[in-house]
Amino acid sequence: PHIIMTNANPKLFNLPGWGDRLTDTSYKRLISFSKKYQFVPLRFATRNRKHALGSTRSLKKIVTDLQRQIGNDTASSMIIGFSIGALLAYLLAQKMHFGKVVICSISPTLGPDLKTYPPKEVRKAFPAHYKEMSKMRYTKLVSKNVVLLYGEKEPVILKQRSLAIAKQNRAKAIKIKGADHILDDIYLNALKRVI
Predict the structure, then answer these.
(1) CB 87 within 8 A of CB 107
(2) Can you list the alpha helix ranges (DSSP code H) found in 4-151?
(3) Would you tell me the crossing angle of helices 59-70 and 84-93 to the nearest 10 degrees?
(4) pTM recorded for the entire structure
(5) Strands across the sheet with 172-176, in order?
(6) CA–CA separation, 77 vs 176, rounded Å?
(7) What would the pLDDT profile of 16-50 be if each residue is shown by its tens digit?
(8) What are φ and ψ of residue 158, in 5° steps?
């Protein structure tokens, strides 16, 4: 007799915002919402570490490393990113087919969007990535089941970029009433309904 092995649960990958950690209360709550998924941590940091934005590694190498960690079996998996983590989730979803992609308050820092920030501020945050990010574009995603969330109180550029990505990918964009650029109760309650 043939025995067919199946994965117990599809995987959940979560990429946090700048300076955030998956051990923060808000991320623990977010992970707990997704009962049907098996959370898989990635070797990654959001600030000044070897595997991070703000390090000396190129953004392309960081994305390639994350892609390698995630592996090929992603058709039933979900990836969620917040802020700069949403940008990384977006870059991964350009190359990989995920069952579901949830992009929360994406940092609009590619191509011409970079010019909306004070150059000194962006170069300080991403010294090794500034030039690379200025040449990158928001291309269409390979993944089809994509949801973008953004807060009502967030900067206009972020709202515009979220809506443009949603339109380009025929995805759903959800404005969260009363939310700002923080993974608080308001944001988490909206996110819970999407997951």
Answers:
(1) yes
(2) 25-33, 59-70, 84-93, 119-125, 130-135
(3) 70
(4) 0.90
(5) 38-39, 11-15, 78-82, 100-104, 146-151, 172-176
(6) 24
(7) 998 888 899 999 999 999 888 999 999 876 555 54
(8) -65, -45
